Every structure is written in structure tokens, then in C-alpha cells.
Amino acid sequence: MVVSITTGIFTTYGAVLNWGGPLGIWTWPIVIVGQLLVALIFAALASRMPLAGYSYQWMSRLANPKIGWLIGWVSFIFLIVDVVAVDYAVAATVLPSLFNYAETNQNAWLVTGIVIIIQMMLIIFSTLWSTRINSAAVGTEIIGIVGLTLLLVIVGAARSLLNVNHLFSTGVVPSAGYFNLGTLTSTGPFMLSFLLGAFTIVGFEAAANLAEETKEAHSVVPFAMWSSVVLSGVVGFAFLIALNLASGDIKALSASSTPVANIVTQTLGIVVGDIFLVLVTFSIFACGLVIFITATRLVWAMSRDERFPGYQLFRQVNVRTRTPLAATLFAGLLIEVVLAVFAGLGIFANQTSPLNYLFSAATLLPAIIYLATVILYASARHKLPPARGFSLGAFEVPIIILALVWLLFELAIFRDTLLFAEPWIYSLIMFGLGLIYFVWLLVTRPYVLSTPPQEGGEPGTVGTRG
């Protein structure tokens, strides 16, 4: 699984209703174009360097191993918070409706913690079952979203529940100044709505993690990257339109913690609605599992190269399970700590919706990674091996420029100090901790960062999202 529209829309739709109203879904096509530009650049990069290992490998070769380490660390702290965001989403936006219990921060925290432990046990003890879950989730993702889209429209029309006006309604958001871009420290309603697609359409670059095991990787991997953005964009937008049409009482939905689940059950009925919510639960669980696996493999890969704290322990692969046991336990523990900080300890006094902060942090960090990758590709592309199987040709420079404009625009959303202080704090604290270790490496073991990281040789893996 690369891009999960089920996870993204169930996670962010409620926030968009409050930030930009139903009209906010019209940011989706713009995001698709922006992310497609970025995906095309990553595709061009993959055609020249088909390597497994996320941006950690690419940056080490586009610039130098030191920059590669820094980007690898940013990727690590992104993956950690992304697991929390995805698992918290299923605990807060789907399961309360499915099992009919009250959605509270305490309940969401408890359920998320349990989900994380289950995922960790699967990763440790059964690569086979992790693979099976991921493979099955591809089917449930397609069946769930396409099926829900068609049924919402068909059943909604048959029951006279569809309202075309909701496609262009601002809902509970005042229409005055709606398209205002905001100020230096605040973001306008329509601009905030871009996070709907920006959180969802990420992870396309993860297709490269199987590059060293793929035949004709120079052409197959690039196609997988840009086509996943296009396909997810079309299917996801159709689902969003169906949700808006069947949204019913927008004010009530905006106050609900489970708005998408509410639309599904209100339109399709409890029995049919719950069947689809089970498929959605499975898809989101699998998405979190895949991200979790990716985090453990990144810890293992950096430890294998002696570039991660405690590498002597985390580079070991358990003989019986053939998985990086210590790396998995470490990632799981850190994920639980991050969950506790965002959802349980109340460190942030103004925190009202942990999920909003979580998915915001999981949108901010990949945008930074993408921006750094595009900049370095633009500056070093002439030094790379020639393109094979995929090339941007005469469109390369315009695509680079437009991708940079898009990414800078996306990052500008996060200037809102009221909404996004917590994601920035998390990102800066975690990056600062890594920077301390990075300086220690430079002082005590500079030779470690003098050569690019190793290629291949990873323990059994499943693939990734975002």
C-alpha cells in the first residue's frame, strides 16, 4: 500500500468541515496537481537511482552522507508520528461508531495504544501475516472506497438524501473572507483545507523501497509513483463529492468526532454501513502497520550503517523471527511515548483535538522532506546517472519550478501559530535530539559519515505508505 485515501479522508474530513466547510474539498484537485509534480521529480530520481531505503539513500547520493543522515532522521521522526496519527484516526473516527462507544481523548488514547501493541507483535513475530494483511488491505481499500462512493450516491439518491448545494457550502465556517490567505501568523479557511489532500497524497515515493527487488525498476517504479497519485486523486475526489452530497446536517457533522462514519451509517443503514466500516478499519489498521514496518526498517538500515543511536543493538536481526526485534521494540516504545505526549499527558494546554495536531505534524514533515529532495535534485541532477525508462525531458525545469512553488505554498499553511504550534514543537524537539547525536558523530566518529549508506540487504519487509 502506498497512498491510503481511506486513511487520509477519514482522518481529515472532520477537520476540514470545521476549517473550511464542505467547500474545502475543492482544494483536493489542486493538491493532486501539486503532489503529481513532486511525484514526477521523484520518479525521475528513481529512474536514475533505483535504490531501496527512502530519502535516506537518495539524499546521501544527491548531496553527501551528512545531508542524507539529516533527511533520514527527519524521515524517522515523520514515520513515528505518522503511525500515531493513523492509528489514532481509526480509534477516534471509525471504531466509536462501529462499536457504539463514546469518543473521548481517554478512550482514543487507550484504543490507539492497544492497536500499536498489536501491530508491534505482528511485525516482531510474523512477517508472513504482516505481508498478508498488507496485500489484503489493497483489496479492502479499493472495495471500501469505490463501494462506499457508489452506494452513497445510489442509496442517497433513492432515499432523497442528496443535497447538491452542500458541494459549495461553507457550512459552519463564515463565508466572509473565506478565500483570504490569512496573515503572517494565521491561515485563511480555504487555505487550511489544503491539508485534506496534503495529508492523504503522500508516500508515493515509497514505491522505490522495492526498487532493488523489481525487474525493470527504472521504468516500473517511476510509473508506480506518479500513477498512484493520479489514481488516488480521482478515486478520492469522487468519494469526497459523495460525502458532501450525502452529508445531511452539516452543523451536526462538524461537531461530530466521527463525521464520515456518521454519513455512511445514516445513508446506508447500520448493517450495511458497519460492513463497510469494518473494511475501512482493516484498511487503516494495515496502513498504520505498513508505516510502523517502514519505521523499524529505517532504524535497522541506519543502525546497519552505524549511524543510529544504539546501532550495536538495533542492527541485529533475530535468528528465529528474522526481524529486527530490538529496532521494532524501540520504535514501538517511542510511538507510545509520542502518543502519550499528544493525546494523554495534556502538555499542550490548549489541546482540544489531538488528531488535528497529529495529522498536521504528519503533513508538515513530509513536505519538508519533499522540498529538500526537489531542491537537491534540481542542483545535482546533472551529476546523476542518465535517466532510464522515464524522463521529464524538456519539461524538467518547469516541473521543478512549479513543484517548488507548490511545496512552499504547502509549508506556508503551517505559519498559523494557533493551529500548528504543537506540530512544530514536536518536529523541532525531535530534530534537535537528532542533531545532538549528529554532532557527536561528527566529533567522535567522522569516518562513519564519509561514505554513502549500504544498498540492499534489508530483512524481510512488506512495503510502505506514507
What tags apply to this protein structure?
466 residues, mainly alpha, Amino acid/polyamine transporter I, two-stranded antiparallel ribbon, 2 strands, disordered C terminus
Summarize the structure.
With 466 residues, the chain is mainly alpha-helical. Helix content is 68%, strand content 1%.
Number of domains: 1
Top CATH class: Mainly Alpha
CATH architecture descriptor name: Up-down Bundle
Which fold name fills CATH's third level, the topology?
Amino acid/polyamine transporter I
Taken as a percent bin, the fraction of beta residues is under 5%
The SS-based structural class is mainly alpha
> What coarse outline follows from CA principal-axis ratios?
globular
Low-confidence stretches: 346-350, 460-466
Mean pLDDT: 90
In CATH, what is the homologous superfamily? Answer: Amino acid/polyamine transporter I
Order of helices and strands: HHHHHHHEEHHHHHHHHHHH
Structure description:
With 466 residues, this protein is mainly α. It has one domain (5-450): Amino acid/polyamine transporter I (Up-down Bundle). It is built from 18 helices and 2 strands. It has a two-stranded antiparallel ribbon. Strand 1 and strand 2 (186-187) form a beta hairpin. The longest helix is centred in the middle third of the chain and has 35 residues, at 270-304. It is globular.
Write the topology of this structure:
Blueprint: H1 5-19, H2 28-48, H3 54-62, H4 65-93, H5 95-99, H6 105-125, H7 127-158, E1 182-183, E2 186-187, H8 189-192, H9 195-200, H10 217-245, H11 250-255, H12 259-268, H13 270-304, H14 311-314, H15 325-344, H16 354-380, H17 396-412, H18 417-444
Antiparallel strand pairs: 1-2
Helix pairs in contact: 1-4, 2-10, 2-16, 2-17, 3-4, 3-16, 4-6, 4-13, 4-15, 4-16, 4-18, 6-13, 6-15, 7-10, 7-13, 12-13, 13-15, 16-17, 16-18
